[in-house]
């Protein structure tokens, strides 16, 4: 499996949000770091086919982002995912499963499985508007996994999770990354130290660093700050 991002660019009038980013992603967990406005979310939205690039292409094993086959193998959790507050957690997952083309029996089986995975089984019949921020985020993670995606794109997935939930989430993502491509953006650098196989860094729309990470030779947060510091900024 290979996700190829070739000179991907997004320009808005005179501002370039993503500037000729090229990557080849294989099975594993890729941690994407960058300050607000670095272009991370724009890049992810183009990979998911939500945003049309100004130029460049995205393909996965020869499939383009516009194809049904590409979308069928994609899971996506946006930074602020939409939900219906009067739906129960189970109703929401069943609804999302139908949109992803799962049969009724498969949708129910997968929804039950994922509610257990994200520890929401006891809240399945409660309305989402009663959920805490962390519970809503866990539900978002569950919906991204409904179709057993080969490519999983997660934009700030640990926002709102408490430390115990974050550990559970990291274990889940590490397991998924053994056989799939996971691209994970976060401001919580410590989350990536535990699960990322490769670290990517963006600054001003450009990819400024790509490298394997084994956690043994450097403090990731210090390394990130060094890579992204502004010109003239003190050490």
From TrEMBL:
Keyword Transferase annotated: no
Keywords from the named record: ATP-binding, Nucleotide-binding, Transport
Residues that span the membrane, as ranges: none
Domain of life per record: Bacteria
Family note: Belongs to the ABC transporter superfamily.
SUPFAM superfamilies: P-loop containing nucleoside triphosphate hydrolases (SSF52540)
The protein's name in its UniProt record: ABC transporter ATP-binding protein
Domain ABC transporter residues, every copy: 3-229
Endpoints of the signal sequence: none
Keyword Transport: yes
Molecular function, one GO term: ATP hydrolysis activity
Natural source organism: Diplocloster agilis
């Amino acid at each position: 499996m290979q996700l190829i991002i070739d000179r991907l660019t997004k320009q808005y009038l005179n501002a370039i949000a993503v500037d000729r980013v090229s990557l080849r992603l294989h099975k594993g967990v890729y941690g994407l770091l960058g300050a607000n406005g670095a272009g991370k979310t724009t890049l992810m939205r183009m990979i998911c086919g939500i945003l049309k690039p100004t130029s460049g292409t995205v393909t996965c094993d020869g499939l383009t982002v516009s194809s049904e086959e590409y979308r069928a193998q994609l899971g996506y959790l946006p930074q602020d995912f939409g939900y219906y507050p009067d739906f129960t957690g189970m109703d929401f997952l069943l609804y999302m499963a139908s949109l992803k083309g799962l049969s009724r029996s498969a949708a129910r089986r997968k929804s039950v499985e994922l509610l257990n995975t994200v520890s929401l089984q006891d809240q399945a019949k409660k309305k989402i508007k009663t959920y805490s921020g962390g519970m809503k985020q866990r539900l978002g993670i569950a919906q991204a996994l409904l179709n057993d995606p080969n490519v999983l794109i997660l934009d700030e997935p640990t926002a709102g999770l408490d430390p115990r939930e974050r550990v559970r989430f990291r274990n889940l993502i590490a397991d998924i990354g053994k056989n799939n491509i996971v691209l994970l953006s976060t401001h919580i650098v410590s989350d990536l130290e535990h699960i990322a196989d490769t670290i990517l860094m963006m600054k001003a729309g450009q990819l400024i660093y790509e490298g394997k990470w084994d956690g043994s030779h450097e403090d990731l947060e210090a390394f990130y700050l060094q890579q992204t510091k502004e010109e003239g900024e003190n050490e």
